[in-house]
Amino acid sequence: MSGLLPILIVVGVLLDSPAQAAAETSPAPVLNPLRRGELLARAHCATCHLFPPPGGLDQKTWKEQTLPRMKMRMGLAPAMLDRQKEADIIKQTTGWLKTAPISIEDFELISGYYSARAPVELPPQDPHPEIEVGLAQFQYERPAFRHSNPSTSAVHIDSKRHQIFLGDNETKSMTLLSEKGIFLKTVPLQNVPVQFSPRQEDLWITCIGSFLPTEKRLGGLSIWEPKSDSWQMKRAVLTGLPRTTHVEQADLNGDGRDDLVVCQYGNNIGQFSWFEQMPNGSYSEHILIQKSGAMRAVIRDLNGDKKPDIVVLFAQETEALYVLTNKGGGEFAPPRTLLQRPPMFGHTGFELVDFDRDGRMDFLVTNGDNGEYASPNKKYHGIRLLLDRGDRYHEAFFLPLHGAFRAIARDFDSDGDLDIAAISYYPDYEKTPTESFVYFENDGAGKFRPQTFRECVTGRWLVMDVGDIDGDGDDDIVLGSFIHGPSDVPDFLMLDWEKSGPSAVLLRNRTK
């Protein structure tokens, strides 16, 4: 005991020293409002998504659009929420808080931080090759058929039947064109088609329910069969889903029956699920990710274990590309993040492709959604290639493209490397309208020559498909126009589209 006494005395002296007393009584350092706002933003804005840097948007968009919406989501503007369409449903979601996690004073500090640090104008795209006008490799063909207000929600090239399938939002129908673009038939669907998937002789049709955002569960999947010169519904497979954007089929649990992977984008409410096919032909849902924004999924054995894995792209606030590894028996590992970006990134699609021909699958990813509310063009919109390097994915290149919505890689010119066909739904119509469609010709040395056809602004391209429509051995391209979407479009273009704009056009490949 006596040996401890000197130690206790020393400790007592240290605790009672003037320096210690001063430390205990001195006030905490005072942070300036901008620094406090930044710390609050990093603490609270990163709880639901990646931290959004102020430079991702301009001051006007932060003040007038993004921050007011965040204020409402955080439970700080209940009156504004009550005015929203479907407010009663929205209030039931986890993304809209009933009790605010911060005070209104702290939110104003966050707003002040973003308003002060954001640029007055967003910077332009980095230097890149100018898009050449003239596309000698492809022949532009404009079918005589058109809907009076083109709202093409899906396109598909059926290489077996040598036909083009068009889905239309306004008429809720499917139209068939011949390989020459001649009108064959329009089939009423009573829903908005977004995906056509031939399977044997049947056609599986995915319907979104409503092209415009809604919480109503109107999405679904149905099978249609050929009947004389038309099509008729064989059976409804899934109904009453949140806005459904994409469906893939594969035997996921090894029982010999094909199951379904379904992207239920929804709006505020949505989910990503696989549907197990039961012995009686019905389907049982297994939710994989309980959040909205699932856009597109691909099923592929990525690790070589003979079990199909799933890759899915989420938009909305998540903005991430996930891999779900199949563990067998219908079980999947938790989602592994391959790519994630802040919520203003606006992902729109991806393709799984072995771009460098090394036997490993790579990801061609597009981001360019600019339609949730009025917002300027963004230099970070475009096309990215993520190469599989075994232990990681490496961004091999970025091709700037305002409003990029879809990119498909094929060897269009049959020279042994992959070229890229891309569409933009939100091009810079004032400065670079040629961004509407771009053909990036691969020179084989890591460089791309961007080109477009002279009539590239005859429509507003929302959807695209690639396939050999005429059986000559090369890939053709079909583009679908949806003219009445969000964002500003020059009046003269809109008037032209409404008067005579096509529902779809064909770019016929003349390589072979």
Fold and architecture overview:
The chain has 512 residues and is α+β, with helices and mostly antiparallel strands. It has 8 helices and 31 strands. The strands form 8 sheets. A 5-stranded mixed beta sheet has the order 1-28-27-26-25, with no helix packed on it. A 4-stranded antiparallel beta sheet has the order 2-31-30-29, with no helix packed on it. The chain has a 4-stranded antiparallel beta sheet with strand order 3-4-5-6, with no helix packed on it. The N and C termini lie far apart (98 Å). The N terminus is likely disordered.
Labels describing this entry:
alpha+beta, four-stranded antiparallel beta sheet, five-stranded mixed beta sheet
Quick overview:
The chain has 512 residues and is of the alpha+beta class.
